[in-house]
From TrEMBL:
Keywords tagged on the record: 4Fe-4S, Iron, Iron-sulfur, Metal-binding
Designated name of the protein: 2-oxoglutarate ferredoxin oxidoreductase subunit delta
UniProt-annotated stretches for the region Disordered: 71-96
Source organism of the structure: Halodesulfovibrio aestuarii
Organism phylogeny: Bacteria, Pseudomonadati, Thermodesulfobacteriota, Desulfovibrionia, Desulfovibrionales
Example of a GO MF term: metal ion binding
Ranges where the 4Fe-4S ferredoxin-type domain occurs: 1-28, 30-59
Membrane-spanning intervals of the chain: none
PANTHER family, per database record: ADENYLYLSULFATE REDUCTASE, BETA SUBUNIT, BLR5484 PROTEIN
Length: 96
């Protein structure tokens, strides 16, 4: 994942939609990666960024296949809702 700070306007949508809490807004109000190991490569941050300030690069598995998203066994994936996340589009707009 790559964040382009010059493009980021600090809206916080990427932070709100990230199921792994990988991103946070820094002291300058820009998104930054704080827990890269928690990224599941879902692309929610990239999808919701209105400023195109985030690029999610495919991960490569041990057998050379590209991984677009990964979940632990027992987790469910879905737009704005994954195991352990209570983020909804309404909350992101109201609270974000």
């Amino acid at each position: 994942m790559c964040v382009y700070p010059d493009w980021c306007k600090g809206c916080g949508l990427c932070v709100a939609f990230c199921p792994g809490k990988v991103l946070q807004l820094n002291a300058l109000g820009k998104a930054e990666v704080v827990q890269p190991e928690e990224c599941i490569n879902c692309g929610f941050c990239e999808l919701h960024c209105p400023d195109f300030a985030i690029a999610v690069r495919p991960k490569v598995s041990e057998n050379g296949m590209h991984i677009r998203a990964s979940c632990e066994p027992g987790e469910t994936g879905g737009a704005g809702k994954t195991s352990g996340s209570d983020v909804t589009p309404q909350k992101a707009v109201v609270e974000g």
